[in-house]
Amino acid sequence: xxxxxxxxxxxxxxxxxxxxxxxxxxxxxxxxxxxxxxxxxxxxxxxxxxxxxxxxxxxxxxxxxxxxxxxxxxxxxxxxxxxxxxxxxxxxxxxxxxxxxxxxxxxxxxxxxxxxxxxxxxxxxxxxxxxxxxxxxxxxxxxxxxxxxxxxxxxxxxxxxxxxxxxxxxxxxxxxxxxxxxxxxxxxxxxxxxxxxxxxxxxxxxxxxxxxxxxxxxxxxxxxxxxxxxxxxxxxxxxxxxxxxxxxxxxxxxxxxxxxxxxxxxxxxxxxxxxxxxxxxxxxxxxxxxxxxxxxxxxxxxxxxxxxxxxx
Length: 312
Prior knowledge:
Elements (H helix, E strand, L loop, with lengths): L4 H12 L10 H8 L14 E9 L2 E9 L6 E7 L13 H10 L3 E5 L11 H15 L6 E11 L1 H15 L7 E5 L10 H6 L7 H11 L25 E8 L3 H13 L4 E10 L10 H18 L4
Parallel strand pairs: 3-4, 3-5, 5-6, 6-7, 7-8
Antiparallel strand pairs: 1-2, 2-4
Helix pairs in contact: 3-9, 4-5
């Protein structure tokens, strides 16, 4: 189907605004330019509690934000990794998404402020993501959570990190995960898919921006088979937690996300795929603009609610 009219209007206004391409900026300037963008197109959900904490990581403390909804503890826990190409994004940029999921599931959401590139190149983000998930499992009770009901989720780069953590948890003997929610994840190094070719210009996330992101994330030669990034190239996907993969029709990353869902299913992993027609990369964080985003958030919360099941 064609690009949604409201989506086209948004993209046209963004282009008319004259903001220089992010890839023309320094990483620091790009962070300043985008940090409030997602918040501007979302609604803030009031919760019982929101607390910033710092937890141990592989190279120092990792900032996290713990969102606690109303409800009788222990609650299930969702560990959330923000998007931003491993270069931009923060706890603040994805605060509305985390609040919305916490309230709708309901679950405790732990948002992870993993190290960003180029200051901290690959595999810093992946190792922080795994360390934070392991900490959540070990300290679930301390934050009012149920260690038997933990899932991971993220958008774009965060979707990649959720898939990576799921693989690392299998390889390293835990923690046990109930589900992985992958929102338009990056899963491979390839720029040759049909969606990359057809949607690489004019739809918010561009090929040149992806190259800028990955150029910062990888400071040197990295084996394309390293599954701390290229999850689509993992030789064996058996035994991973059930997955939900959300893609957008006009997203360069559409095909690699859908290919990953297909590979999970082929490996015997329950994997639900939803392609949101008429939308572009980044829509999930804009429920105030697009009904499709609000619907996708509600659907994601429903999937996670079902995956968590009753308290253990």
